[in-house]
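# nightly structure sweep
# worker-07 picked up a monomer target from the shared queue
# config: single-sequence mode, recycle default, output format = structure tokens
# input follows
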Amino acid sequence: MRKWVLGFTVMVVVLALLPTMWLAQPSAPVAIAQAPTFRMRIQTSMPSAATQFEGMQKFAERLQKMSAGRVKVDVLPIGAVVGLSEILEAVDKGVVEAGFAWTHVWSGKHPAAGLFGSPPAGAGTGMDQTTHLSWLISGEGANLLRELYRDGLKTSVVPFPIMAVGPEALGWFKRPIQSLDDFRKLRFRTPPGLPGEIYLEAGITAVSLPGPEILPAAQRGVIDAAEWGFPSDDLAFGFHRVWKNYYLQGLHQVTVVADLIVNGDFWKRLPPDVQAMIDTAAMAANLEHYALLIHRNGIALKELVEKHGVVLQETPREYFTQFPKATKKVLDKYAARDAFFKKVLESQRQFAQLAMPYRINAHKVDLFLAESALKDR
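# output follows
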């Protein structure tokens, strides 16, 4: 009898609690729905048609899903709120919550920015894009990047490396070059900052022109050669309509990285889990875009060669000895002038001494693998 009474009592208690348990089940989604939401406007440095803009849209979609809608992200094309040169200040002052730009854009504010975003010839260390990312993520690069924005650029923004696009092509040429002397006879459009200085040091007539002026200058004969990006971007740009000689192997931007920068006060208002989501989504964007470009560039290069008659040329071997020499000379000059520049450069050189012996020897297999596959065609 006691057992029956006890069992009956337990059953009554359970039945009484069922409505409460049922009502309690959706509490987690309700809590998320009631959590504060954050609007994050990202002022980018690109037009909406750019591949990198597409990459930032994917970042936004991923972050919104990860946060269950708690972060509403608007990716803005260049000029929507401010222009390229104003992005850093706009983010720092809270005009927008975040921005996207290549780190080397800020080289005019501090020369060390070029070592993070686009170190020529891998900062003279031999580091390629993958090894540079390793330094940025696994080495001292992440802490030094924060130091650059905090102390070097005098801002409170929080930076995240978000998009690697290197290596970029040497460029497009009016006529083939067989030697560095041939190169020196041409007027070559280069990026501003360190790459331009290094080309001048190497005896190349370097001309700095903004993007919209490059093709008109080429058509008028003001310049004889120019660099811009990589096959997918260069195809869209239209270089093949002016010149047909295309050189992929260049050292001036063998590594190129862009940052997501977040306003410091906005960052502090975010809960720790949302901060972690931004960090994770940025890391994912890096990998996703890096993989995407291999595919897109393969498609573009095939079209350039087969449809538009572009001739893929080999860069003269002399270039690969002379450009690094000029790079070292220019970088050492800046290191002698600025303590932070020296600190970053020494960090990269030390990392390269550790990583490059492995990288070079292990990845010889990539070349052997490709050569074997081509021979078997």
